[in-house]
Amino acid sequence: MRHLGIVATWLTIFLLVGLNSAGDMATARAMRRVGDFTELRRKAGTLGVVRAVLTEPWFHLGLLAMALSFFGLLAALSLIDLSVVVPASASLSFLLNLLGAKFFLKEHVSRRRWISGLFVLGGIMLLRT
Amino acid sequence: MSFLRYFLLALIVLGSTYGDIYLAKGMKQIGEISPARWRDLFFAPFNPYVAFGIVLLMMFYISYLASLSWADLSYIMPATTFGYVLTAFLAHFMLGEHIPLARWIGIMMITAGVGFITGGPSLTVIPTPEGPSPHVEVHS
Fold it and tell me: Using the beta-carbon criterion (under 8 Å), do B109 and A27 form an inter-chain contact?
């Protein structure tokens, strides 16, 4: 198996991270607009939930970004080791998503969440050692 | 938080962890996808390992959508990183892999972070004239 150089490896990882986070942001926004599945199912049934999800434009945008990220990951896995690509992209996506949750999704990222996030991020990095 | 919600979080963890493992196994069998062979990517899902990985990732995705309908992204994300802890434990207790001290500290940090966040509120609540709304303001 041929391996990518260090620059190409990190460029690939950054591209995957960007697509993955864009997918997460768009999907989270879509689900926020759709509302709690349990309540929606009680009111409109399972088909109503499916319809609400499928007619939400942010869901399709999220799905497209995730699909691109998925095929990108498939291609990357044949060139970069899983033990490098998954933890590296996970820790970077984690950081980007936390910032996106605060500034794009306008979530209340409380001190509890920042501290938890930093603990988890530190933990992911230590697992890589 | 109800049993169903914990169950969905567990499905997210298991689906994404094992999904990635089977995808990687399948892609190693297929071999390198060079720019000249880009069309092979579309045939990758016919590899049994890749196919099983995709089924697991679909399970992950549906649970993920359901969870995001009642919780914030900044709540779901740390909770789902528990998969790394699971993988490390499986590698240690089932495969007998040695886990160095730094990795044990990493496992403890993730566990502490996950425990800390799941003890807090799961959704941003915005006060509105009609009462508290679980929906953040979304500008379309």
Answer: no
Domain spans, chain B? 3-121
Per DSSP, what are the bridge partners of residue B132? B127
pLDDT at residue B133, rounded to an integer: 55
* Cβ atoms B114, A116 nearer than 8 A: yes
Q: How far apart are the first and last CA of chain A?
A: 24
Interface with chain A: mutation pick from B4, B67, B68, B104, highest number of A CBs within 10 Å: B68
Dihedral of alpha carbons A94, A70, B57, B51, sign = negative
Q: Is the ipTM of this complex over 0.90?
A: no
Cβ of A123 within 8 Å of Cβ of B84? The answer is: yes
pLDDT in tens, B1-56: 678 888 888 899 889 888 878 887 887 788 776 767 777 777 888 899 999 999 99
Q: State how far residue B63 is from chain A, nearest Cα, in angstroms.
A: 11
Q: Dump pLDDT digits (tens) for B110-119.
A: 888 887 777 7
| Tens-digit pLDDT profile for residues A10-57 | 888 888 889 989 999 999 999 999 988 888 888 888 899 999 999 999
Mean pLDDT of B63-91: 82
Nearest Cα of chain B lies from the Cα of A129 at a distance, in angstroms, of 7
Say yes or no for a CB contact (<8 Å) between B73 and A24. Answer: yes
Burial B32-60 (b: 16+ CB within 10 A, else e): ebeeeeeebbeebeebebbebbbebbebb
- Measured between alpha carbons, how far is B57 from A23 in angstroms, rounded to an integer? 15
- Residue with token string 């789902």: B80
Which one of A83, A119, A125 would you mutate to disrupt binding with B, by most B Cβ within 10 Å of its Cβ? A119
